[in-house]
Amino acid sequence: MELGIEVRDLTLRYGNVTALDGLTFGLTGGKIHGLLGRNGSGKSSLLSLLAAFRRPTAGRVLVDGVEPFENQDVVRMTCLIREGGDLYASERVSHVLEFAARLRPGWDAELARRLVDRFRLPTRSRVMSLSRGQRSALAVTLGMAARAPLTMFDEVHLGMDVPSRYAFYEELLDDYLAHPRTIILSTHLIEEVSSLFEQVLIIDRGQVVVHASADELRQRGSALTGPADVVDRFVATRTVLSEQQLGSTKSVAIYGELDPAQRQMAAAAGLELGPVALQDLFVHLTKDSEVLR
Amino acid sequence: MFDDRSPIYQQIADKIKDDILRGALNADEQVMSTNQYAVFYRINPATAAKGFQQLVEEGVLYKRRGIGMFVSPDAGERLRAQRRETFFAQLVEPMLAEADVVGIPRQDIVRYIENKVVSPGGAGD
Fold first, then answer.
1. B65 shares contact with chain A (CB less than 8 Å)
2. Per the CB 3.0–4.6 Å rule, which of A79, A204, A273, B38 could disulfide with A289?
């Protein structure tokens, strides 16, 4: 089951604060999408609209072709896990899991058990006695085992320790390969998860900055290293993201794809070419989003 | 697992080429699926597929619909020819440049290579 998403002129205001400012984009179903943005960029607001947690001020959200708000069929196929997991503090972990199993049509009890083991969750404890990381791990378990056709994680893994986060990435990829579905991961720990993304949507100040395939976006950045004067000549007319110099050797990260002829020219001039991390591109794109729009 | 000097899909493509050249993958042999690559390298299967696509375009792999990717019958010969073409530019030239930098005379290099040729096994130790 592959739920696609269409968003048109989507606007959300809280009083006189504009959280989302006329977003338009489409997400293809059955892919893993990375939703990236700085704090306060509108990521959580956007996800809450996709999950029908609230209603847009203006514009439209279509999930699988229909508006999700107060639409039981779509909501049943949707799972949004937010940081903290929206859990009742006084419930026991085992009860939280049982409740989710009854509520979620696609629940995989076997997967839930495995995740509980991997995350070392104490099933008899109450939610309130869990650490922040354990609460996040429980939330992740709920989101994964629900196996909803549209699954969204809103920075949920940030509280988890490194081994748990890596376990999450691994389980998510394995389960996605076995049961392809639409997954949206919002995060600012970009480097850790970027290899899982097929598509990347970057928003800033409630607007779309970039929407591209992860590989395409990576190709827009290049690192050039070589003699300083050669590097300077080559990048003179380009957007420079960062530069470092050590003696007469200079390394410059640029934004803007190089075509094969330009790559060949750089190599012939004695420059070493390398990729730029998605995280560095993100930092650049959200620094002054007016420039490259 | 990866160096970070080239894109992941490029590295997957290079790894498959190396496997073919070393004889670990033979003509008409099936290559691991994009999903297997995705699991092994912890990457999105679309990224692995991009590496495969490149090899299909280069004629190194061919697709059998519904079954998977296979090594082209002439892939080994094609790759060897490519590598022969770039051998002097990519390997010998940098070596000579390094030799000049550190002060190794050409006759030392020639002597070294000639000794290698007559040593048992030929390819070096």
1. no
2. A204
Q: Give the tens place of pLDDT for each residue, B89-110.
A: 889 999 999 999 999 999 999 9
Check if the beta carbon of residue A196 is closer than 8 Å to that of residue A169. Answer: yes
Residues of chain A contacting B8 with CB distance shorter than 8 Å: 195
pLDDT at B116: 85
CA atoms A80, A85, A86, A88: torsion sign: positive
Span A74-122, pLDDT tens digits = 999 999 999 878 888 999 999 999 999 999 999 999 999 999 999 999 9
End-to-end CA distance of chain A: 34
Q: Write out A127-189 in H/E/C secondary structure.
A: HHHCCHHHHHHHHHHHHHHHCCCEEEEECHHHHCCHHHHHHHHHHHHHHHHHCCCEEEEEECC
Given a cut of 50, whether residue A291 has pLDDT beyond it is no
Residues of chain B with C-beta less than 8 angstroms from the C-beta of A170: 42
